Amino acid sequence: MLVVGMHEGMGMSGRRAFEVLGFCVLFGAVFYTWARLAPAASLPSYVRDPAYFALAAALAAAAGFGVLRLLRVRRASFERLWLALFLAAMPVIYLWAALLAGDRDAVAIELAGLVIFGGLALLGYFRESFLILGLGIAAHGVAWDAWHHHRAGFIEPWYPQACLLIDLAFGLLVAIQHVGLPDRAAAAR
Predict the structure, then answer these.
(1) Is there a contact between 25 and 71 (Cβ–Cβ < 8 Å)?
(2) Given 144, 146, 155, 157, which is the most exposed site by the fewest CB atoms within 10 A?
(3) Percent helix, strand and coil across the chain, each rounded to 5?
(4) Do 111 and 165 touch, CB atoms closer than 8 A?
């Protein structure tokens, strides 16, 4: 993986450059999904519809992480908490949509996703690992969103693709945080 290969010998300025690029890619993915994938919607849709709510929440999560990274003094433990909460909340969107649709089979599957990604969030937070959190966010896109694409009739059809793009960009940005900032798992080796 690119991030693991960069870990050795990359200085703080190199990670910072990748981080800036990562934020650009993340915000580009968010705005692309908003402008090109998601049909225009009224403001109440962003509260009532899980897919539109998730799009607004992804923008808020990305902006919040950006603000945290701009602080003069790094608060890595709070950053990890922010990211763990985001990762744990991601599967709630599909669960919410399945509940609204009354699809009991889908609810059972989405509850499993809540356990899986909630577990990854807890693991990443308590192991103090940006790498686990980043891989968990990316895995939500690769495993969960890709699986839901063309399978989940209970969510907006554009949503799995939009979430996949955002998750990959966000996951890469978070994994970059691992570079040059040893976490407990890396320090134990």
Answers:
(1) no
(2) 157
(3) 80, 0, 20
(4) no
CA dist., res. 81 & res. 170, Å (int)? 15
Angle of helix 76-101 relative to helix 159-176, nearest 10 degrees, comes to 170
Q: How far apart are CA 7 and CA 178, in angstroms?
A: 8
Which string of b and e fits 116-126 if b means at least 16 CB within 10 Å?
Answer: bbbebbebbbe
Are the C-beta atoms of 173 and 58 separated by less than 8 Å? no
Q: What are phi and psi of 19, to 5 degrees?
A: -65, -45
- Sorted by sequence, the CB contacts under 8 Å of residue 22 that are 6+ apart come out as 169, 172, 173, 176
Count Cβ atoms below 10 Å from residue 72 Cβ, excluding itself: 4
pLDDT score of 6 more than 50: no
143-167: average pLDDT: 93
Of 5 and 113, the one with more pLDDT = 113
